[in-house]
Amino acid sequence: MAFINEHFMLNNETGKHLYHDFAKDMPIYDYHCHLDPKQISDNVVCDNITDLWLSGDHYKWRAMRAQGIEEQYITGDAAPLDKFKKWAETLENSVGNPLYHWSQLELKMYFDIEDLLTSDNAEAIYHRANDYLKQHHTTTQSLITDSNVNLICTTDNPTDDLNYHDAIKAQDGFNTTVLPAFRPDDVFKVGDPAFTDLLQKLENLTHPITTPSDFIEALYKRIQYFHDKGGRLADHGLEEMHFEAYTDQAIQDIFKKALNHADISTYERFQFQSYMLNELSKAYHERGWVMQIHFGAIRNNNTKMFEKVGKDAGFDSIRDQDNLAYHLNATLDMMEQEGHLPKTILYNLNPIYNDIVGSTIANFQTEPGIKSKVQHGAGWWFNDTKRGMLRQMSSLADQGLLMHFVGMLTDSRSFISYSRHDYFRRILSSFIGDLVEKGEIPNDDQLLKRMIENICYNNAYNYFKLI
């Protein structure tokens, strides 16, 4: 039997039933990813597996470095076949790492190849995969369609023009809804060059900015621009969740320092972060948006490699921080007290904080008619593994209502990462099936069908209300 078979990852009979009868064929609602809208709009032809597999994939790059592969074959200019061979050498040594599962799933799902990729068959599989892509005239849009994706939310800078989203919407024959999502990370980088650059770009699009109020007004204009284009989600990538009380005068002083390129203390940065989250949440709440917060990464830790290959190249780690429970609760409470806490999804990169997040969200489920208004987001980045998914779902089940979980997302730049939804659905089905067989969940098909279909698709559909 092939390694990737119909019962892959399904380790109990109930789980097999739940996956095959309820989970497997549900459409995909990819409410957070990093796909390039230009590549979707242009319907780029995909004719080389190396480009699909290795371009921009820092997960694979980390594994290749652990294998001792030279950087030339990772982020360098080596020939596509040579890079693929080096990845094959790495993959056959990655047993135990989820990359082994993901890669074999992708070979099966997108190239109809059941063979296990090894150094010995790498060149043959390379040519088979590329022949398959060409014979099926594979494109970015066909990969999305064939993956049964109903909706995609990309990740977009506040100053993006969103023209590619307009172009996608105007195309006939492509039925997946593609919407922008507002990602204003640079607004929190007060005192850094990225913050100053953002101010200049916003001024060019809106109006002169000399005060915090000018800044907020400019951002609100851009939020409305996204809203007019169909955007209903915002996302924020924060290194740490910190709440610090602030006054209007303190924010004005910090902003003036930023304009004058003066030094800004860590305490002031966290004051400004609290201020920005609070002000942005007002606009999100007013428009019925969902606010997402990803926190807990420490980035670009290898200085030598940062100088050689740049940022986001696979040298990031899980961060820890002091007193997270206080800072997380205080941030949400600030918005709740003022009456503008929007629907919110919290994604923690450090799994030791799962129960802190789970117990925090339970404090703010206070709006009648909204099921789990504040969500514990799916296992993210270092946690979209079997172990990470199970930890997140177990914590959510302990602390809240797993029945209302909005489920999996790709959080990926790869057009073939939709296999991760299948991976998640298999793990979810086995997880629930195991609890049923242990007598911890009733063996009630109607109940189980509702739970599986809700988590796979229906909850996201009803929570975001985008299509």
Automatic annotation (TrEMBL):
Sequence similarity: Belongs to the metallo-dependent hydrolases superfamily. Uronate isomerase family.
Keyword annotations of the record: Isomerase
InterPro entries reported for this sequence: Metal_Hydrolase, Uronate_isomerase
Catalysed reaction equations from the record: aldehydo-D-galacturonate = keto-D-tagaturonate; D-glucuronate = D-fructuronate
Record pathway: Carbohydrate metabolism; pentose and glucuronate interconversion
Name of a matching Pfam family: UxaC
Enzyme type, top EC level: isomerase
Family matches, as Gene3D superfamilies: Metal-dependent hydrolases, uronate isomerase, domain 2, chain A
One annotated GO molecular function: glucuronate isomerase activity
Gene of this entry: uxaC
Source taxon at top rank: Bacteria
Name of this chain's protein: Uronate isomerase
PANTHER family: URONATE ISOMERASE (PTHR30068:SF4)
EC number assigned by the record: 5.3.1.12
